[in-house]
Specification:
Blueprint (H helix, E strand, L loop, with lengths): L1 H22 L30 E4 L3 H17 L5 E5 L2 H7 L7 E4 L5 H11 L3 E5 L5 H9 L3 E7 L3 H9 L1 H8 L4 E4 L2 H9 L7 E3 L11 H14 L5 E7 L4 H14 L4 E6 L5 H10 L4 E3 L12 E3 L6 H6 L3 E4 L14 H5 L4 E3 L7 H9 L3 E3 L3 H12 L2 H17 L3 H15 L2
Parallel strand pairs: 1-2, 1-4, 2-3, 4-5, 5-6, 6-7, 8-9, 8-12, 9-11, 10-11, 12-13, 13-14
Helix pairs in contact: 2-3, 2-17, 4-5, 10-15
Length: about 425
C-alpha cells in the first residue's frame, strides 16, 4: 500500500512532462483532437454487440505493426472474438486504422486509479494482453482487483533489465503479483522472469511473433518499382530507424563510401516523423544531394541521398536496398537497437551498431551465422558497405543465411494464438 502511494505521488509529478511530449504538435504527427480525454478514462462507450472484448495493448507504431498478424490470425480462427486495441500514441492509433473493423480502438488511459477504473468499467474486458513489457503498476493492480486476467505476450526481459529489477525487488514485486501469465520470446526471457519470482507454471515459451513475418507480394512489387526509380544498376544501402545523434554518423559513412563508389545511394529513414525535415536539412548542410520520398520528385544520377519520410513503408524501403544498416544502435545505452528481422526476411545482408541490448540474442545469432556485421563507428560502416558492394556473392550468401534464420524460428504466431485462446476459454 505504501509503495503504491509513493508511486502515485511520483506519477503526479512526472505526468505533466509526459503529456507535454505526448501532445506536443510536431510535423507529420497525427493530432489527438478531442480524443485526448481518453487518456483520462473518459472513454466513448462501445456498441452493445461488442461485449466482453479481449483487451490488447500495443503502445505505439512498432508494437501495432508487430501484433497485426496475431490479431488477423485470432480473428480468422475465431471471427466472433471482439478485440479492443489500445495505443498510447496518435501515430500508433493511425497504424491501427489499417486493421479496419477487425478491432475497436481506444487510447490507453494514464496509470491513475480513476482513469483505469473508469476505462475497465466502460469497456468490460475479459482479459488484458500486453505486447512485450509495457507494464504499469496501477493498471495491473486494478485489472486483478476487477477480475481482468493479465498476460504479457511476446515478452522479453534483457539481462540488463533483470539486473536492475534485482537491485530494487520491491518494484518488480509490485508488478509481478498482478501478472497471471507470461508468454516469453525465449527460454532465457522466461527464466529471467522466474528468477525474479514468477512461477514456472505462469510462463510459457512461445517464441517471438516478429519472426512470423510475411513479405507480401504487394510489398515486393512496390520495392521493385522503387528500386527501378532509384536505379537498378546503382549500389543502394539503407540506414533504417535512425535516432538523433546517429544521422551525422550515417552521413559521414556515406561520404566515405562516395569517395570510392560515387554512384552509391543512401536511403535514410528517421525513426520519428517529427525529425524528417531536420534530417533533410542536415543532409543538405553536408552538401549532399537529397530527395524525399514524399516529394515524389524524380531521382537522378546526381541524387546521393533518398529520405524515407513516409509512414508504414519500411518493408518497401528495405526491399529496395542491397545492404541494410539497422540504427538505434550507435548512440550508447539510449536505445538498444531495433528489430533486424524485417531485413533478414527480405534476404538482405545486415549491419548493426555496437549497442543492441534490446535485441541481443537475435543480433548475436545472426552475427554468428555471418549474416550480420557489427560496426563500431562511421568508418567501420563505410568499410563494410564498400566490402559488400564489391562482393555480390558475399551479399547473396549473407542474405540467404539471414532468411534461413528467420524461417527456422517461425511458428510463434501459432503458439501465441493457441495460448491466448486457451487463456480466454479458461476465463469464466
Amino acid at each position: 500500500m505504501l509503495l503504491r502511494l509513493i508511486y502515485r505521488l511520483l506519477l503526479i509529478l512526472v505526468t505533466p512532462i509526459f503529456l507535454i511530449g505526448l501532445y506536443k504538435s510536431k510535423p507529420n504527427k497525427p493530432k489527438f483532437g478531442k480524443r485526448w480525454k481518453e487518456h483520462f478514462g473518459i472513454t466513448p462507450p462501445i456498441n452493445k454487440t461488442f461485449n466482453n472484448p479481449i483487451w490488447v495493448h500495443a503502445v505505439s507504431v512498432g508494437e501495432v505493426v508487430a501484433i497485426t498478424p496475431l490479431i488477423k490470425a485470432l480473428k480468422k480462427q475465431t471471427p466472433s472474438l471482439n478485440i479492443l486495441l489500445t495505443t498510447t500514441t496518435s501515430t500508433g492509433a493511425n497504424e491501427v486504422k489499417k486493421l479496419g473493423d477487425l478491432v475497436e480502438h481506444r487510447y490507453m488511459p494514464l496509470d491513475f486509479p480513476f482513469a483505469i477504473k473508469s476505462f475497465i468499467n466502460r469497456m468490460q474486458p475479459k482479459a488484458l494482453f500486453i505486447m512485450e513489457t509495457e507494464l504499469w503498476p496501477n493498471t495491473l493492480h486494478y485489472c486483478q482487483k476487477m477480475n481482468v486476467a493479465v498476460t504479457i505476450i511476446n515478452a522479453r526481459l534483457s539481462e540488463r533489465s533483470a539486473t536492475r529489477y534485482k537491485k530494487f525487488p520491491f518494484i518488480f514485486n509490485l508488478l509481478l503479483r498482478n501478472i497471471d501469465f507470461v508468454l516469453a520470446q525465449t527460454q532465457h526471457d522466461a527464466q529471467r522472469f522466474i528468477n525474479l519470482g514468477l512461477s514456472p507454471h505462469q510462463t510459457q515459451v512461445t517464441g517471438s511473433i516478429k519472426f512470423d513475418i510475411k513479405v507480401t507480394p504487394t510489398q515486393l512489387d512496390e520495392a521493385k518499382k522503387l528500386r527501378a526509380a532509384l536505379g537498378n544498376a546503382r549500389p543502394v544501402w539503407i540506414a533504417a530507424s535512425t535516432h538523433k545523434g546517429e544521422d551525422e554518423q550515417i552521413i559521414a559513412a556515406h561520404q566515405q563510401v562516395l569517395t570510392s563508389i560515387p554512384e552509391a545511394l543512401l536511403i535514410i529513414v528517421p525513426r520519428h516523423p517529427e525529425r524528417f525535415s531536420s534530417v533533410q536539412e542536415l543532409v543538405t548542410k553536408n552538401k549532399l544531394s537529397v530527395i524525399s520520398r514524399s516529394s515524389q520528385h524524380n531521382i537522378t544520377e546526381q541524387t546521393q541521398v533518398y529520405l524515407g519520410d513516409t509512414m508504414g513503408e519500411m518493408m518497401v524501403l528495405l526491399g529496395a536496398s542491397d545492404v541494410c544498416f539497422i540504427a538505434g544502435s550507435l548512440i550508447g545505452d539510449k536505445v538498444g537497437g531495433h528489430n533486424l528481422l524485417e531485413a533478414a526476411a527480405l534476404k538482405k545482408p545486415i549491419l548493426n551498431g555496437p549497442s543492441y541490448f534490446n535485441f541481443k540474442e537475435i543480433t548475436e545469432q545472426l552475427t554468428t551465422l555471418g549474416a550480420c556485421t557489427i560496426c563500431q563507428d562511421a568508418k567501420e560502416i563505410a568499410n563494410a558497405i564498400k566490402h559488400l558492394f564489391a562482393n555480390e556473392q558475399i551479399q547473396n550468401e549473407q542474405g540467404k543465411q539471414a532468411l534461413a534464420f528467420v524461417e527456422r524460428n517461425q511458428g510463434a504466431l501459432l503458439k501465441t494464438r493457441k495460448a491466448i485462446l486457451s487463456i480466454i476459454d479458461d476465463k469464466p
